[in-house]
Design brief:
Length: 245
Amino acid sequence: MLKTTALKRGAAVAACLSVLAFAGCGNEGDGNDTATDTTSESPSQSPSTSESSEAGGDTTTCEYTSDGQEPARDVDPPKPEAPAEDTLDATITTNFGDIGLTLDAASAPCTVNSFVSLADQGFYDDTPCPRIGDQEGFGILQCGDPTGTGAGGAGYSFPDELSGDETYPAGTLAMANAGPDTNGSQFFLVFRDSQFPPSYTVFGTIDDAGLQTLQAIAKEGNDASNPAGGGAPNKPVTIEKVTVG
């Protein structure tokens, strides 16, 4: 599973074929091939969002609560009312090139709401992506921690948005976590079809040009500090900025 260790945790990406924890996806992980923000380990359906239909369209009330940790950067939590329909375009600009995203607010409104809020506040600007997993059965780049340790976050967490039918083919954008309902700021970008359990909220897709950028990053290799889950990229990967819209 993809985890973040200690609610400022080490994210790990867990593969179905062999549970690999991928440290750093949500926060720092412990070296398996999994994407997790580390705090508990099984996925769960979030019971804490409610949808309402208003003149402005469908909305959801989200719960963002303190995770007990100091944020890696000073940011405000997102507003609780989130759009629950349509998609948004976003771009992650890296030192390797752009990664274009389509954010799915209809399927994961609270997750998209958080990502957009953090992006608008500059939380992701000039931050490293500390881990890449490029093993048999999965391929991901983990980002979203300004400290670059895999243990940093935004100081709040929020519940999963899962159907139980999630899959993680190449081109998937998903949250790292530390167990059920421990999403924070860390996320992972899938560049190869990956066999993970349906434990990680999927909140968007990556465009073809973005996949090429990710392949270029993967080609540089990693230090393989964690044999099961990859390691730090051999050539540092930096998110220069995230632009929404």
